[in-house]
Amino acid sequence: MISENLQNIVSKLPDNITLVAVSKFHPAEAVLEAYNAGQRIFGESRVQEITSKAPLLPEDTEWHFIGHLQTNKVAQLLRIGNLKLIHSIDSDRLLQVVDKEAVKAGRTVDVLLEIHVADEETKSGFSVAEIEQWMSDRKFETLKATHIRGVMGMATNTDDIAHIRADFHSIRECYNRIIGEIAPDLRRFDIVSMGMSHDYPVAIEEGATMIRVGTNIFGERTY
Ligand SMILES: *Cc1c(COP(=O)(O)O)cnc(C)c1O
Fold first, then answer.
1. Is-contact 146 139, C-beta < 8 A?
2. Which of 1, 86, 140, 207 has its CA 20 to 30 A from that of 147?
């Protein structure tokens, strides 16, 4: 099942799109099944879960953290050696903690800044204005061990495709302004992470470079 689902998705993906298989709430055996079908990048949303699963998978598995990250869990998260990317940096305060803990751990870490464009107040992240201000203030220059690789965002939870498209468009436009005008000298700022199971085709049309798909690969989650 899992390998068929994966093949279905991967065979239709444009070459330049990176697929993050979101394995949260699914057991390590399910992750291994996807690994054996060729998938290497997995996304998790809870520190405890990623910490317990990571040792059960082969060493070349790449882990992405996509959930809300509490500052008191950062050190634990950074202990995962093959943690490749944190998608969900939703405040400057969190970013400062990540940077400080990465220095302490003697490692570097790649991150994305989360942009909030959706209607739901419960979703977190910087507003477009905040992120652009942060970039024009060149705050990234003060980071010692953290590299900002791009942006991440979610669309409003709605069936209205036009609304979803407009949300993704806002995220990509913000990215374009940063790389085009605000901070064109930023190195390796090349990731736009957007699109989940129900809306990733729209996200790709609107300029995603990375998608995060869970349910369409692993099935429904039981919380
Ligand atoms: C759970 C989750 C996903 C995957 O959602 P699906 O609808 O199962 O594809 C993607 N991104 C984030 C931030 C998530 O928390």
1. no
2. 207
Q: Which amino acid is at 161?
A: I
Please report the atom of ligand 1 found closest to the CA of residue 20.
10
List the structure tokens of 155: 């669309």
Q: What is the pTM of this model?
A: 0.97
Query: In one letter, which amino acid is 40?
Result: R
Backbone angles phi, psi at 145, to 5 degrees: -135, 10
Query: How far lies 177's CA from each of 69, 170, 174, 198, in Å?
Result: 27, 11, 5, 27
Q: Whose CA is nearest to atom 7 of ligand 1?
A: 197
Chain segment 57-114, per-residue pLDDT in tens: 999 999 999 999 999 999 999 999 899 999 999 999 999 999 999 999 999 999 999 9
Q: Which residues, at least 6 apart from 207, have a Cβ–Cβ distance to it below 8 Å?
A: 168, 172, 175, 176, 192
Quick: pLDDT tens for 123-156. 789 999 999 999 999 999 999 999 999 999 999 9
What tokens were used for 217? 């690969």
The CA 197 to ligand 1 mean position distance, Å, reads: 7
